[in-house]
């Protein structure tokens, strides 16, 4: 397993910029607004032959435990408990604050080594400004500028010096590759509560305030079949409502997480039902070729369950043609009731998404589909389809060849897709169909 390094500090000292530099890509949202990061975010990078898991945390603030700031601090404290090394980041440009001193005193009692990082120490005066951090009693500060990339060679060296010895059995090329899962949905549908329930810990900050999750936050756990890497995304709103800069950045991170996943769990508030915004999110998952499972959350609070479920099934049947037969799991993320059925549904849908059909079975299906419903006439001429092949899985993708195949009408394409889905039992996953016309191989040859 990789060693873990937690990045800690009060809000707006540049923790997320530092984290992005350390993992070598822009994972965490970065903005001048204090408190952009609200949940712990993970990234992996190798240095000196060591695989390191970095955790970007919410800002440390002195606040009551029941407040948002208090819950953010509790989340950062939990990250420290997982860490092999803590990076305590201060702002060299702004100088030390009472909060810096209070949290430094707390970190001196921590059971893990602490490396003091003086950020925003760029230019000639940067090193001098960083010297003030000696007052915190945490040893030599490492002066860096996350924004400009200065001082990172020294920082990496200092990190490697303080990490525990590598486990001889540590295997960087783990064949147990995790299933990549994204939790998507409208704000306040219960996505973060669901992730906490799956993990069995208060990993994500939750509360009645909508939009608490701003980043797409990645974390790993194990279910009965193996590793799962799950991303809890910020709620996707209608574009007209995405007004603030931070929300635009959050929406971009959510869409990126959706593109990177294999299965998307769409969390729907059962008390509100599935509205147009939920359908937009599901269609986005379809468009990206991702398998979808619907988590019908807050089911314990629904009074007329039969009518509510019928309405949901009607909406799904009418509006999600590309994910016909999508799995629906009624559940309560808050109480945990029904959540145990979610991962088996995800694993089953994932298997459909990965399915490859043997060539013989595919040919028999194709011949039968053509005989049951012959191809149409286009401009008075019959489209002649000759054969089909499955070019890939993830999602299942078919390529059909024939004379004028590229002119195949949309309704006939839908017929072939639905027939393929029914015959080979592929509910809940998008199926791609591409058509290619045959050409005369001698048409472009020079005559002898």
Give the class from helix and strand content and strand pairing: alpha/beta
Taking all Cα atoms into account, the compactness measure Rg is 27 Å
The neighbouring-strand order within the major sheet is 2-3-1-4-5-6
- What is the H level of CATH, i.e. the homologous superfamily of the largest domain? P-loop containing nucleotide triphosphate hydrolases
| Content of β-strand | 15-25%
CATH-defined topology of the largest domain: Rossmann fold
For the largest beta-sheet, the strand count, sense and barrel status come to: 6 strands, mixed
In sequence order, what are the helices and strands, one letter per element?
A: EHEEHEHEHEHEHEEHEHEHEHHEEEEHE
Can you walk through the features of this model?
Residues 3-167, 179-354 form the EngA-type G domain. InterPro entries: G_ENGA (IPR031166), GTP-bd (IPR006073), GTPase_Der (IPR016484), KH_dom-like (IPR032859), KH_dom-like_a/b (IPR015946), P-loop_NTPase (IPR027417), Small_GTP-bd (IPR005225). This protein has a 6-stranded mixed sheet with strand order 2-3-1-4-5-6, sandwiched between helices. A 6-stranded mixed sheet has the order 8-9-7-10-11-12, sandwiched between helices. Residues 28-38, 63-72, 168-174, 203-216, 235-252 and 440-448 have low confidence and may be disordered. The longest helix is centred in the middle third of the chain and has 16 residues, at 245-260. The chain folds into 3 domains: 3-162, P-loop containing nucleotide triphosphate hydrolases (Rossmann fold); 179-353, 3-Layer(aba) Sandwich (Rossmann fold); 359-437, 2-Layer Sandwich (GMP Synthetase, Chain A, domain 3), CATH 3.30.300. It has helices at residues 15-23, 68-82, 98-108, 126-130, 152-162, 191-199, 245-260, 276-287, 305-319, 342-353, 359-372, 410-423; strands spanning 3-8, 41-47, 50-56, 85-91, 114-119, 142-143, 179-185, 217-223, 226-232, 263-269, 291-297, 327-330, 377-378, 381-382, 384-392, 397-403, 432-437. With 448 residues, it is α/β, with parallel strands linked by helices.
